[in-house]
Specification:
The structure is a single chain. The protein is of the alpha+beta class and 169 residues long. The chain has one domain: Beta-Lactamase. It contains three helices and five strands. The protein has a five-stranded antiparallel β-sheet, covered by helices on one side. α2 runs antiparallel to α3. It is globular and about 45 Å long. Part of the multisubunit transport protein particle (TRAPP) complex. This is Trafficking protein particle complex subunit. InterPro entries: Longin-like_dom_sf, TRAPPC. Keywords: Endoplasmic reticulum, ER-Golgi transport, Golgi apparatus, Transport.
Length: 169
């Protein structure tokens, strides 16, 4: 069963927003902040070791989620800044853009966090992140050889993901 509609992977993934391979990096974290998957396509400069990079990215997500929940103008119950929110609670963000990259984010109800870093001109990637999550469910979660919480080593998932992300705008 898929979380984002349908009972199988959509035969037609969302259309790219701009032509060319603009994807830089993809992270998949579980609810505990463990990086299950890290892929990179266009990252010319590596400044940190992978463990530091993963910790910084998860910390950034934690801080942004906390900040957006605290600044929510529609909710009177703000909670304490820094206290973790459950998936679906409070105000959430989908992306932010700098002059050199755009970070798009999606969190599933089970706490899986998918982060895709792309070129700053890339459009809205919410549907693409849902499609990637559906790939994750089909090829990883439903795989009887996969142990939840372990790094993702499924070749079929990785090759399908690479093919899809390389076609994204």
């Amino acid at each position: 069963m898929q979380f984002f509609g349908g009972s199988e992977i959509s035969p037609s993934p969302p259309q790219p927003t701009v032509s060319g391979n603009n994807a830089h990096m993809l992270y998949v974290f579980n609810r505990n902040g463990v990086c299950l998957l890290y892929r990179e396509w266009n990252r010319p400069l590596k400044t940190l070791n992978p463990q530091q990079d993963h910790k910084l990215m998860f910390g950034l997500l934690f801080s942004l989620k906390s900040l957006t929940a605290k600044m929510d103008p529609t909710s009177a119950d703000k909670g304490n800044l820094g206290v973790p929110q459950l998936p679906g609670q409070g105000c959430s963000f989908h992306s932010f853009r700098t002059n050199t990259y755009k970070l798009s984010f999606m969190e599933s109800p089970s706490g899986i966090k998918i982060i895709l870093v792309t070129h700053p001109r890339t459009g809205d990637l919410r549907e693409s992140l849902k499609y990637i999550y559906n790939l994750y469910v089909e090829y990883v979660v439903k795989n009887p050889l996969y142990s939840p919480g372990a790094p993702i080593k499924c070749e079929l998932f990785n090759s399908t993901l690479d093919q899809y992300v390389r076609g994204l705008g």
